[in-house]
Amino acid sequence: MTTAVSRKASHSMALVALFAALMAVMGLIPKIDLPLGVPITLQSLGVMLAGCLLGARLGFQAIALFLLAVAAGLPLLAGGRGGLGVFMAPSAGYLLGYALAAGVTGALMRLLPQGQPLRTAISAFIASALGGLVFLHAMGIAGLVLLAKMPLEKAFFADLVFVPGDLVKCLLCAVVVHTVAKAMPHWPFGGRER
Amino acid sequence: MGSLYSEHLTWLHRWPAGAKLACMALLGTLLFLFNELWLLAAAGLACALLWCSLGPATHKVRRLIRSVLVAAALVAGFHLWLGRPDVAAVSALRLACASTLGVALTVTTRPTDLLLVLDALLAPLARLGLRPERLSLQLALMLRFTEHFFVQWQKLDEAHRLRTGRPGGLRLIAPLTVQMLQAAQRVADALYARLGG
């Protein structure tokens, strides 16, 4: 390393690496396999958290870093999957959607009202439901249609199976944000300037 | 942390990582460009031969490829059920081939070699203001954090078991996140202390 690092840059580097690692840890938790080759994992919770806590830019970077490590062959996806092959599987739309969904969630979180922990948590729920659920699932359906050549309405109904589980994850995300808002009141949710 | 790289040396190990990555990207794209059944059947045969030629190196990833084949079979079954046997064969073959290629690359290439190739590929991004060397540092940090996360999770879980006699489960996510955010702030300060100026 020859280049000097500003305080802000070192901060964002540590946070990006941290949330990439959070994704990896959530992948170590066993997954439940559904037919169609799309597994239920905790990793979409990681996406929502990265968006809510880091904001659009850093959240996107964190998930992109994680996907880069996966592409390089580290078995970090749920169930120990990794390598370039997973980006061509039927669920690839969800994978690529992860990074963008973190960005969308972060951007929404920045716009939504914050203040009291409860209000922040409600905003986090809305942001993760729109970014981490609606947007991510749209990307996933697009992936199923394009990669597995599934008709649109079939892909849509196949995808609906995951919605209840992901709603629970949105709630979990809101609970985590609530705790963080109480424990670290000055945390810049959604990447707001302090 | 185990990688999927196999120490059983094969002919594919001797290829440079960059060449393998380029081949893989090219073949992967071609697979999605063609819809002719005979072409994809030929590709499937070639992939099966490739797989067999790797011999014991594929030992570790047998489960992985089995799950891919099951997924391919499910996709095929789905299309058969819709009465489209041609689409079924094509999409199942395409999936199986693409995954086999990816797995072959992963098994025969060290992650560090792939990262070096990525470094070289990302180098032009330096002009756009991105720093490739920072990316490497971040990847290293991420792997370190992953381990730390796991240790921390186990500590919290043990503490929860001691207090309540039950495993902590999802209840631990919130305290874990707070602890890790604080750890990240300490790491950021340490990075600044060493590299800042």
Describe this structure in words.
The complex is a heterodimer of chains A (194) and B (197). The radius of gyration of chain A is 16 Å and the shape is globular. Chain A has helices at residues 7-28, 43-54, 56-71, 92-111, 117-147, 152-160, 163-183, and strands at 32-33, 39-40. The two termini of chain A are 29 Å apart. Chain A is an all-alpha fold. With 197 residues, chain B is mainly alpha-helical. Chain B folds into 2 domains: 1-109, no CATH class; 131-197, no CATH class. Chain B has 7 helices and no strands. Chain B has helices at residues 17-33, 37-53, 62-81, 85-108, 111-122, 132-164, 173-195. Chain B is extended. The chains are: A mainly alpha (194), B mainly alpha (197).
How many strands in all of chain B? Answer: 0
The overall average pLDDT of chain A, rounded, is 83
Gap between N and C termini of chain B: 34 Å
Order of helices and strands of chain B: HHHHHHH
Helix count from the secondary structure assignment of chain A = 7
| Major beta sheet summary of chain A | 2 strands, antiparallel
* Global geometry of chain B: extended
Tell me about the biggest sheet of chain B?
none
Dominant shape of chain A: globular
The helix-and-strand class of chain B reads mainly alpha
Total beta strand runs of chain A: 2
Structural class of chain A: mainly alpha
- How far is the N terminus from the C terminus of chain A? 29 Å
Element string of chain A (H = helix, E = strand)? HEEHHHHHH
- Measured as a percent range, the helix fraction of chain A is 55-70%
Task: Return Rg of chain B in Å.
Answer: 23 Å
Estimate the helix proportion of chain B, in percent.
Answer: over 70%
Assembly type = heterodimer
Uncertain segments of chain B are none
